[in-house]
Amino acid sequence: MIPFILPTALLTLLLSLVLAFVRGKALLMFYQQEEYDSHRFYAWAVAQGALDRRTSIWLLLAGLLAILAQQGVMAELVSLSVPLVLVGFIHGIILSQRILQNSKKPLVMTMRASRIFWVYITLTLVATALILTTAMMADNGLRLSLDLSWDIFTSPVESYDWRLPTFIGLLLLFVQALPFLLTLANKILEPFEERIKAGFRAEAIKKLATLNPTIIAITGSFGKTSTKHILNHILSAAKPTLATPGSVNTDMGITRVIRESLTADHAYFIVEMGAYGPGSIERLCALAPPDYGLITAVGAAHYERFKSLETVARAKFELAEAVFKRSGMVAVSTNGIKAELLADRIAKTPGNYRLTGQDITLDNVEMTAGGLTLTLSEAGETYELKAPLYGIHQADNITLAVMAARMVGLPWSVIRGSMRTMGQIRHRAEVSFGNHEPAVINDAYNSNPEGFIAALQVLDVLVKPGGRRILVTPGMVELGSEHEREHAKLGAAATQHADIILIVTPERIPTFLAEAQRTNDGHASVMSFNTQAEAEAWVQDNVDIKDAVLFENNLPDLYEAKVGF
Questions:
Q1: pLDDT tens digits, residue range 354-383?
Q2: Coil, helix or strand for 485?
Q3: pTM exceeds cut of 0.90
Q4: Is 430-560 in CATH node 2.120.10.30?
Q5: Among 78, 257, 261, 507, who pairs with 69 as Cys (CB 3.0-4.6 Å)?
Q6: Is residue 147 within 8 Å of 5, Cβ to Cβ?
Q7: 212-420 — its CATH code?
């Protein structure tokens, strides 16, 4: 029998805290990517196997040896139990640090992330103190018994001493509890965070009321960021305009833009609004009351969160309700919404709508290596626009943005002139032509099947004679029940537009792989890779100047990383 040794226990607890520190940062990185949504974080942890395995195996083995020693079995091997515990923690620390270093989207220690992390560390300190106290009281009769010997092990004694097995068992529970301690820290901070958010939000609302810019809100299942980019460029040609940057579309993101970037000079404020559930858009409209609204689409991109198109539509049309309360106008892209669903929403949310295909029509669109050429009509007049953008799907976004510009009173001459100087949209069918390099299409931030197919078509116009069309993709996310069906369609489409298909994490999208193989007429080569980095390395080693390469979507670590704690 091996008694519990306090100095050794303290050394072990120190290593457990080091593991908690490093593992906590790794877990916080993924928690941050899930926007601190604990339910989604738990689902990810289970799906990706993010609960600890490696350190736990070492602890289980050490605990088994310690228990056997109490029974007089394998007593000669009991000296291995504590070293096994130490090795287990060191192994866990190394694995956690490796995951942190190899992340595509590293942890950003914002003020909120820092608060969560240090409350989490406090919880781990409390937990380790409880572990030590409980283990010392685990002797016969739960009597407190401190052994201050600096020897790691002493000679066996006659009575059982369960402190060491108890100590190892509690350490095992501690390691498994780390993800839950992290979410508990967030839960503890919720009242404090809400007070902070309320203060910032009130400040933003007051500032908006004082500056009173014309607010144009944009929402939709897809296309909203591209439409925002296009509209921002058009309006900026007429008056100073501010748009929420990148994909910023949440309550606190918009609040921060208002507080830090909006000035009295801005005549227009374009706000992208994301829907994460019913009521999301309503809340954002209370923050930034829109004078005009744009709805780009109601599609499959949000199936995972909303479960049905009807629920998505209700959430998106919360924007229309808010605009009509201010006697404003709402522009809707009819190509992005099923006709019967649009008719139902308009009937249930009546107001002043402007519809693409009716108020402004897209008569023709052509895509060449130089970009898009569109023919639009309004009130019997026809207008030709040229834009250095790629992807036929951008024609709908351009049409909607032009409609919004017309709603606020911009003349066609300003719109037409601004389109010629339109900059490309970052990571959304963004094309680059390097010297002595192939054409590269960066569609890393695309989140919908329609955009995927449109980006595939760009390969056809950019590949040079004798070149190959190369697709690199891990597929899409957040398609919910439509995941398998939509990926089967995309797999079939890929073989029509690509000569080489590099699939990243094929286990995520088995129907894409199966359909690509089934519909392949023999000309396309289909290969699989475990990570995006491996696929990109293949492209780097094998690409030719005549080729065109499409990087379609680039999933965060949540979906690609093999966590392996």
A1: 999 999 999 999 999 999 999 999 999 999
A2: helix
A3: no
A4: no
A5: 78
A6: yes
A7: 3.40.1190.10
